[in-house]
Amino acid sequence: MTNKIVTLVTGGNRGMGLALIKALHAQGQQLIMGSRDLAKGRAAVEVAHLSDVTVVQLDVTDSQSIQAAVNAIQNQYGQLDILINNAGAAFDHHQRPSLIKLETIQADLNLNFLGTIAMTQACLPLLTKSSPSKIINISSMMGSLTNALDPQSSVYHASAIGYQASKAALNMFTIQLAKELQTTNITVNAVDPGMVATEFGGITPELASQHGAKSIAHGIQRTIELAMDTDNTTTGTFSNTDGPVAW
């Protein structure tokens, strides 16, 4: 047991996940890193000198992995205050909607949408024990139907139907779960970090300016704000560092 806020970040061994862990650890929270590869997670913690960060093996597309991770958190901490659903990937390679393979779309949906739902449902009993508690879903403007139709939008010309559909679906899950939990102690929000210079986006920090990508520090700002918000009344929103994002 701990008096600290206990926060789980899925996909936490690199990129934005690791940056979130470092930032929230610096704010005094007790961090749990979910890493699909346990060895890589432990190595990331060692390199970052975060010896008190707990690492759990976690593949959000594997129900047994999810339950084992939740059991480990229950046994060590007995609660969970914040779940940050950060694990995700884009398996699309700019294929046209008329040509993309169904298995590619399925891979996007399995990880970004169904995996997030499975992870969240498994964590809800632990989140219910805390007051207040939070679910923060890392989404993307790429999943915004409004922006996909706006010629002035930065994502208008994007074509990654599997990834975009998975994030649009994640946004709907965020809305519906927030509505379901609106009379409880749990808030549910979606965050758009924007195009960030990470391995996930295929953009190194050195190439960020050429692609208009944000720094990781900029990309995690809104998530940090929500995670540190002591008021915890904001729920059912989709936002980034500039404010609300259209659904």
SSE topology sketch:
Layout: E1 6-9, H1 15-26, E2 30-35, H2 38-47, E3 54-57, H3 63-77, E4 82-85, H4 102-128, E5 133-138, H5 145-148, H6 161-180, E6 186-191, H7 208-211, H8 216-219, H9 221-228, E7 238-240, E8 243-244
Parallel strand pairs: 1-2, 1-4, 2-3, 4-5, 5-6, 6-7
Antiparallel strand pairs: 7-8
Helix pairs in contact: 3-4, 4-6
Describe the 3D structure.
The protein is an alpha/beta fold and 247 residues long. Helix content is 42%, strand content 14%. The chain contains 9 helices and 8 strands. The protein has an 8-stranded mixed beta sheet, sandwiched between helices. Helix 3 packs parallel to helix 4 and helix 4 packs parallel to helix 6. Residues 200-211 have low confidence and may be disordered.
Strand order of the largest sheet: 3-2-1-4-5-6-7-8
Structural class, from secondary structure content?
alpha/beta
The succession of helices and strands, N to C, reads: EHEHEHEHEHHEHHHEE
Number of H/I helices: 9
The main pleated sheet reads as:
8 strands, mixed
Helix content: 40-55%
What's the average pLDDT?
A: 93
Evaluate the radius of gyration.
17 Å
Strand fraction: 5-15%
Shape: globular
pLDDT < 50 stretches: 200-211
Distance between the termini: 39 Å
Find the count of extended strands (DSSP E, 2+ residues).
8
Which short descriptors sum up this protein?
14% strand, 8-stranded mixed beta sheet, 9 helices, alpha/beta, globular
